[in-house]
Write a structure and sequence with these properties.
The protein is mainly α. The protein has one domain (20-165). The chain has eight helices and no strands. Helix 3 (56-66) packs parallel to helix 8, helix 4 (75-96) runs antiparallel to helix 5 (100-117) and helix 4 packs parallel to helix 6 (124-134).
């Protein structure tokens, strides 16, 4: 019965609303970061086998600009979580690619376990681990290069914008901790 009672949720109520100023700064930061990655892709990688924008960067932008003080948004988690998850995703595809469902599950579950063990938990890393398995030939042909491009370069671009932008208003600070 305790098991079922836990599913009711807590009595804490809903999260408080953030100020309009916080909404503005979150929007601007996310816009600049994603636009920067997209622009660099368009200028330097358009028409090549490489891509720079991956969907998990959108989820990282939510953390970096919507919750910059969250432990899950800190540089160690952002960079370490994505890079580790990308490596795991490529390895899972190479080892289990013939059984896609198994490679998908193995990539995400292993990435979560390793992010926990290395203290680099970053929820968008789950999507990053999944991408080499389900991303199609363009991504799968990159092999372990996927870890560096798009993931490594893209994450460094997001981090740079987060550090520079989140410290403009007096009410924001990023990062809380580097390592």
């Amino acid at each position: 019965m305790n098991y079922l009672r836990k599913m009711r949720g807590s009595t804490r109520g809903s999260l408080p609303r953030v100020s309009n100023s916080e909404v503005f700064w979150s929007w601007c930061g996310a816009f600049l970061a994603i636009a920067g990655v997209g622009l660099i892709h368009e200028q330097f990688f358009q028409g090549t086998a490489f891509l720079l924008m991956i969907s998990s960067f959108g989820a990282s932008a939510v953390l970096l600009f919507g919750a910059p003080r969250s432990p899950l948004a800190q540089p160690r988690n952002l960079v370490g979580g994505h890079l580790l998850a990308a490596f795991v995703g490529v390895a899972a595809f190479k080892l289990l690619g013939g059984q896609v469902w198994l490679a998908e599950a193995g990539a995400v579950a292993t990435a979560i376990a390793l992010m926990h063990l290395t203290r680099t938990l970053h929820p968008p890393g789950g999507a990053t681990a999944l991408l080499p398995v389900i991303g199609g030939e363009q991504i799968q042909d990159l092999g372990f290069l996927f870890v560096l491009l798009p993931v490594g370069l893209g994450v460094l671009m997001l981090l740079t914008v987060a550090v520079l932008f989140n410290n403009i208003p007096r009410t924001r600070r990023y990062p809380e901790v580097w390592l």
